[in-house]
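I would like you to sit down with the pair of lines that follows and say whether C-alpha cells and residues agree.
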Amino acid sequence: MALALAIGTWLFLLGVALASGNRLVHYVSYFVLAAVIVSYVSTRLGLRGIQVTRDVRARRLRVGETLHETITVRNGSAIPKLWLELRDHSNLPGYRLGRVLSAGAHQEQNLESEMICVVRGKYHLGPISLATGDPFGIFRRRKSVGRPLDVLVYPSPADLGNFNLPSGNLTGGAVLPRRTEQVTPNAAGVREYRPGDSFNRIHWNSSARTGTLMVKEFELDPMSQAWLFLDLQSEYHVGRLTSEQLLDWANELLPRQKKAYSLPPSTEEYAIAAATSLAYHFIRQHRSVGLIAYGQRREVLLPDRGDRQLNRILEALAVLRADGTTPIAEALAANEVRFVRNSNVMVITPSTTDRWVADLRYLMRRGVRASVALLEPSTFGGHNNSLQTISTLAAAGIPAFMMRNGEPIEQAFREGLGVRG
C-alpha cells in the first residue's frame, strides 16, 4: 500500500511538472523517485551480513525452573543496520521475545532472556525471524534464521516426606531373575569387564584367577520394586485445557509468580504430578521403579533404580496426555504378568467406576501389594464423584489416597496409608 502511494505520488508530481513546466515540481518528483529507489536498495541490503546465534543454558528443565538463553545478533557487513526487528517463534507457554535494535558495522549485540517454565511438555525455541524496512515504511523485508531448538520441561515433584508403602521395609522373598546395572544386595555372578563398567564392581578374586578383569552382576529385589500405573483414559479425565487455554493460564500466572508454581486445574496434570512425585520419592529410597501408562500411546518402563531411570520416567511423563481409549480394567489385566509377588502397584486414576477394583483384588490374592491414588473429579468441574469407588476400595482392603483440585499433592499422602474421605 505504501509503495503504491509513493509511486502514485511520483507519477502525479511528474505529470504536474510536465504539464506546467514548473522546475520546483520537477525537483520534488525527482526527490520522491530517489527516495523510493534508496528505500528499496537499503531494505534489500538491510539483512545482508546479519548472523544470529542462540545459547540456551539448559534444554531440559523442570516446572518452576527458569529458562536462560542468550541471543547474539552480529552485523558482519560494513553497512550499519539502523532498524532490525527480532522475533522468536517459540511455542513455550508464556514465552515472549521480540526486540527492535540497531547494529553498527561489524558489531554485535547480546540479548538476555529469562522465563519461568510453568507447563510441562516438549516445546521448541525458534525459529527466529528478522525484519527490516526503510524509514518511510515503503518496503519491508523478512527472513527466518536458525533452526528450532527442542526444550523438554519435566513435571516437578512434590516432597512426600516420610511416605512409605506397607511392604517397603520388608526383607526376604524370591529374587527377581532380571539383571540390572544398579548395585543391589543380590549378587548374581560375574562376567568379563566391558567399557563403561564401574571400577567398584570389579571382582578382584575372579580377575586374579582368570587373568582378565571380571565384574559383578546384580539382580533386582522384588521387595523394593514399585510400579506406577497411570490411568489416562480420556473418558474420566476432566478440566483438560487446550494449548491456547494453557497459554492463557500461563500468561495469567506469570505476573503473580516468581519462584513458586501451580498446577493447572486438570485431573491430567494432577495425575502426572502425583506419578512424578512418587517416582522421585521411591528412586530416592533406592527402590526399583517402573511405569505403565495408557495415554496417547502405551508407555511401559520396566523397573530399575537410579537417576537414569528417574530421567526416563520424567521424559515419558513430560509428554503424556490423557488421550487414552483403553479402560483401566483392560490395562491392568493386560499387564498383570509384570507384577511379581510382593511388589507394589500404585494406581493413579480419576475413574468413578469400580469395575477395575476386582483386578486389584486378584493381584492382591497373588501377593501383589496394591494401593490407589484417586483423583476426585467433582473438584475439577466433573459431574461424577468417587464415593462408590472409595467404598469398594475400603471393602476390598485396598489403601487409597484422595487428591482434590487446589490441594497440594503431598497433602494426599501426608497421613500415611488409609482411605481419606
